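Why predict the complex rather than its parts? Because the way molecules touch one another can change local conformation, and only a joint prediction can capture that. The input here totals 352 residues.
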Amino acid sequence: MRVLGIDPGLTRCGTGVVEGTVGRPLSLVDVSVIRTSSDLAVPDRLVTIEAGIEARLDDYRPDAVAIERIFARSDVSTIMGTAQAAGVAMVCAARRGLPIALHTPSEVKAAVSGNGRADKTQVGAMVTRILRLEATPKPADAADALALAITHIWRGGAQARIDAALAAAAGRRGHR
Amino acid sequence: MRVLGIDPGLTRCGTGVVEGTVGRPLSLVDVSVIRTSSDLAVPDRLVTIEAGIEARLDDYRPDAVAIERIFARSDVSTIMGTAQAAGVAMVCAARRGLPIALHTPSEVKAAVSGNGRADKTQVGAMVTRILRLEATPKPADAADALALAITHIWRGGAQARIDAALAAAAGRRGHR
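Output of the joint prediction:
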């Protein structure tokens, strides 16, 4: 499966496309950052982000989109812009009928590094290793977007196996 | 001028269209609410809100859009959805190149009632009086959307007069 990961932000919105399945090496398809100037009004910045996400959906045709889940308790000054960028990303994916999953930063850190409290450097290093890259993607928003896509494939795969096992168990019960 | 006011929200997004200019009676063009079910996923709710706002922009062709400014300090559980609905409203208007203004709840209350701490009932009563309606628009989100549109016309008009006075003063200085 091919997943577009999005680390939403108004100044820097990281995007990363990863392809693969659980149990096999994953591969990098694309990694980039949509940047918007703080000189622009917020609505214009959101329109630029929308256009950037649409372009990536057109170019890479992902099977699913994974977006970082934003919490209201993150009381930094940028939280509203981040929430709005995430909302725009959701709308872009939902308009196309693509499956959307929201993963928390802790879930992503735990998935790629085994530690829900890993720092940016550790996440970047693990993304580099998992995708067999020569250098860590910069800025951190780009690496985080790839980590989201990796998390989605691995969690999705695990969930698919659980679903299959439950379906098989239900099937066995049905045949008794 | 014709203004679309939007009181953003995920469950109820109020919209109101008001037409008029400062110093003359304003008139109601439309008032309604876009509702989305909490049974739906957030991305699908945002797509429904986008479609609703697009329909109102198509139907009423406003000259400007006024949206309630959301603050991160409003630490209620619905704040993220509200911020995202506001973001979607901004994108809809900005894509069309429409002027967008954000007004705080205090600014709106002060503009329509003269009291920045007016309650919902007072705002509803003033909207009803200003637009010479027979009944107060319900729910409060609908009345708030109209109050936003009224505020925009009144503040815009005042700003236009200030700009004109400054331009005239500059012109007089220029002719000395």
